[in-house]
Write a structure and sequence with these properties.
Elements: H1 3-14, H2 18-32, H3 38-48, H4 52-58
Length: about 60
């Protein structure tokens, strides 16, 4: 994932309410059970936030 994609991902993430973020993080932790990397988290959020289609439209892919 490029730096621009990461920045955009975190911008999108910030649009969610803390309770929504906590729910997604809990789901991530259930799937990875403490054995994960930053790249795993970013990939999970990319899929969860369904942002890849947007990136294709704006040329971030």
């Amino acid at each position: 994932m490029t730096q621009n994609q990461q920045k955009d991902l975190f911008i999108e993430w910030d649009l969610y309410q803390p309770s929504q973020q906590e729910t997604m993080i809990a789901e991530f932790r259930r799937q990875y059970r403490g054995n994960y990397t930053k790249a795993d988290l970013l990939e999970f959020l990319k899929k969860k936030l369904e942002i890849e289609g947007y990136w294709e439209k704006v040329g971030l892919v």
